[in-house]
Amino acid sequence: LQPRITETAKELWKVYLVFTGAEVLLLHLGGMNLFDSFCHTFGTLATGGFSTKNASIGHYDSVYFDLVITFFMLLSGLNFALHYQALRGNVRPFYRNSELRFFLGVFMIGTLIVAWSTWRGGLLDPAQSLRHGAFQVASILTTTGYATVDYEFWPPLAQMILVLCIFIGGSTGSTGGGIKCMRIMLLFKQGYRELRRLIHPRAVIPVKLQGRPVPDEVLNSVWGFFILFIGIFLTASIMLTAMGLDMTTAFTAAAACIGNIGPG
Predict the structure, then answer these.
(1) Alpha carbon distance 186, 222 (integer Å)
(2) CA–CA separation, 7 vs 150, rounded Å?
(3) Buried b (16+ CB within 10 A) or exposed e, 237-246
């Protein structure tokens, strides 16, 4: 963002402080006491998910709090360089960034599937399905870990979407964990390129990101990271099952630990 790394750090701190002040103010205006407002804001922007209440955000049972925290969880899951540009008055990167579109696309599709699944299962009405679905998908996708309901009782389809969101994670340059959207995008693009090469073996098909060719060294490093991530996940899962845990508990606990997300 700036020629010197110290200046870049200062600019990112400014962005972080602006978001912190905004969320604290909105939560406090909604009726949350100042201490809880600060704690939940810190847990949101750092995508840490720690709550002062045992029932997490579900303790308040407030549509207003759900919407505010969902909005700031999504902001925290985006690249902070984009926020920096926007606060300086340049919003073009928001429209041009392919990773942002991918991130929001995953969020919207995941929310619709989870909402449809919980509504079809007779657990929630349409409005509640969208409200809790959006919150939980945002919470898991950004690896925040807040909760408004006990989704252990949700249909298997909804639970599976949440598990997949653990692996995807937030955007690069965000406070979220997981594999990160940029790497997932590159893996899909390279996979598509290899399929096209089967049909056109002599074709030169570069992998592009926002119109720029991606060097093979970058793609190789992404594959290396992905294999290491999955390898550690499988090893940890096997070790947990060896301790007597069932497969669901072992898989989700291992994914939650490696992806830096709260709930398993």
Answers:
(1) 8
(2) 43
(3) beebeeeeee
| Rounded average pLDDT per 10-residue block, the chain, 264 residues | 82 91 97 96 92 94 96 95 88 88 96 96 92 96 93 92 93 92 94 91 88 91 96 96 94 92 74
Q: Which pLDDT belongs to residue 10?
A: 87
The answer to whether the CB of 57 falls within 8 A of the CB of 51 is: yes
Could you tell me which residues are beta bridge partners of residue 212?
Answer: 209
DSSP string, 182-227: HHHHHHHHHHHHHHHHHH-TT-----EETTEEPPHHHHHHHHHHHH
Find, among 104, 83, 107, the residue nearest to 93 by Cα. 83
Cα gap 36→57, rounded to integer Å: 11
How far from 144 is each of 69, 72, 98, 163, 176, CA to CA, in Å? 10, 11, 22, 13, 7
Whole-number pLDDT of residue 90: 86
**Alpha-carbon gap, residue 77 to 51, rounded angstroms:** 18
Strand partners, 213: 208
Token digits of residue 31 = 């009726």
Which pLDDT score, from 0 to 100, does residue 151 have?
A: 87
- Reported pTM: 0.92
Please give the C-alpha separations between residue 61 and each of 12, 65, 97, 148, in angstroms, as whole numbers. 33, 8, 35, 7
Q: For residue 95, how many other CB atoms are within 10 A of its CB?
A: 8
Q: What is the rounded CA–CA span in Å between residue 195 and residue 187?
A: 12
